[in-house]
Amino acid sequence: MAFQHQPGTAMQCLSIPIKLAKEVGIDSEGREVMKCGFKIGGGIDQDFTRSPQGYTDNGIYVTEVYESSPAAKCGLKVHDKILQVNGYDFTMVTHKKAVEYIKKHPVLNMLIARKGVTHS
């Protein structure tokens, strides 16, 4: 079960593969940046009991997806739990490390868990 998972313990769940290719955009200072179009919350360094979204574990969750963004186009949804990005385990990661890893790569090959999805 992907939700209510304790970091460091074995987990069996259905994972959905999502490939997100970032798009070039311009930031507020006129610099070219790679944009993915989503925000995350959570991490092993966060207290999930204080999550405004009501998450039940320390996983990395998608908390916002911007309309018409690469994230929206590839099918990422709010409340998706990110299990892995480019082969890197996101079940045992701090919030800061997850943000840094996502920012670093132009293409994100993710495995996510989605509540209510029990088979493909």
UniProtKB/TrEMBL annotation:
Compartmental location: Membrane
Pfam families attached to this UniProt entry: PDZ
Record-level GO cellular component terms: basolateral plasma membrane; cell junction
GO molecular function: protein kinase binding
Keyword set includes Membrane: yes
PDZ domain boundaries: 23-104
Keywords (A to Z) from UniProt: Membrane, Receptor
The organism's place on the tree of life at top rank: Eukaryota
BP terms from Gene Ontology: cell-cell adhesion; establishment or maintenance of epithelial cell apical/basal polarity; receptor clustering; receptor localization to synapse
Protein name, entry field: Regulation of wnt receptor signaling pathway
Organism: Rhipicephalus appendiculatus
